[in-house]
């Protein structure tokens, strides 16, 4: 059943057909799984995998899109930072179009704010070292996948004496969020666990969910056969009444994860309580700078702190991120809210559930 380990094997028609057939045999009752990772969300849409699922099989999105889970209060704080004269914001492109309570970073740019789109935290370090003598604030959005790179960049800034590189810490940690969602009674039979995050935190991070909450957890890669293999293993666990952690992405993920990456991350950051869109404040689910790096925290440097605020009227991103609703349940989907004119972040990000569903359920497919 396992495809050959070269990448072409994970896209081969024969492997996909075999896995689809096996899945159809295993799904003998309603089965509902959650894909935790935004990259899985987009891969499922891009490869048209939903059309291959058997009846009574459902795959819902979870809290795995970093832009989508960034609370409105944090988005507003980032926009306020951008409007401070002399400050340059360095950010991944998806954040620029996320609507805040009053405009977006794109609107702030149009009004004269300095916002630079970067592709890595080291680009922000370059801006601070080579381009701007004024504060450069990197918007540190992402999960355990990106936090080690941001931490390494901060250490490099320290080592080379680049004092004008600051960060707005908005990283999120995945295990506390999953625990919160599953403790809240999410009606899913198992988790398709994220490949990228798991490469850092290791498969062992899901053991408490599997053992404590009786939830099958399977880590999957991002090629079509990777995803179908992970879903097949989940369905088999349900059939056999098991709830275990299985790793269907061993070419990238180990049981222990990347110890060195975690050490770098933990040298610079420590956990803090933080707000997630749709989930509220989750204890220990964010990262803030350790004491030795606090002068690089843009929130304290400029006194700009997140202020709780309601999500955009009518937008159900929060429910989508918990797997309670699907994008097509939203009355604004594909009408008032489109990728060209997004109301909520789930329609902005390339990894957002609403943007992914727009690919497959939007007007182009009507
Ligand atoms: S379709 Fe738009 S408004 Fe509705 S949940 Fe998605 S992002 Fe929010």
Can you describe what's shown?
The protein has 15 helices and eleven strands. The chain has helices at residues 13-26, 38-46, 66-69, 72-82, 105-110, 121-131, 147-160, 174-183, 195-201, 207-212, 224-240, 259-268, 298-302, 317-321, 353-361; strands at residues 31-35, 57-61, 88-91, 114-117, 136-142, 165-171, 190-193, 217-219, 245-247, 269-276, 280-289. Strands 2-1-7-8-9 form a five-stranded parallel β-sheet. The chain has a four-stranded parallel β-sheet with strand order 4-3-5-6, sandwiched between helices. A two-stranded antiparallel sheet has the order 10-11. A hairpin with a 3-residue loop joins strand 10 (269-276) and strand 11 (280-289). The longest helix is centred in the middle third of the chain and has 17 residues, at 224-240. It is globular, with a radius of gyration of 21 Å. The two termini are 35 Å apart. The structure holds iron/sulfur cluster (SF4). Iron/sulfur cluster binds at residues 315-317, 320, 327, 330, 332-333, 337, 343-344, 346-347, 354.
Could you please say which CATH topology of the largest domain applies here? Rossmann fold
- Strand element count: 11
- Contiguous runs where pLDDT drops below 50 for at least 5 residues: 1-5
By DSSP (H or I, 4+ residues per run), the number of helices equals 15
Q: Helicity, in percent? A: 25-40%
**Which structural category fits the helices and strands?**
alpha/beta
What pattern of helices and strands is seen along the backbone? HEHEHHEHEHEHEHEHHEHEHEEHHH
N-end to C-end Cα span = 35 Å
Beta-strand content bin: 15-25%
The CATH architecture category of the largest domain equals 3-Layer(aba) Sandwich
What is the name of the CATH superfamily of the largest domain? Answer: HypD, alpha/beta domain 1
**Average pLDDT rating:** 91
CATH class of the largest domain: Alpha Beta
As a whole number of angstroms, the C-alpha radius of gyration is: 21 Å
Please list the strands of the largest sheet in the order they lie side by side.
Answer: 2-1-7-8-9
* Most strands sheet: 5 strands, parallel
Bound molecules: iron/sulfur cluster
Tell me the overall shape: globular
Number of domains: 2
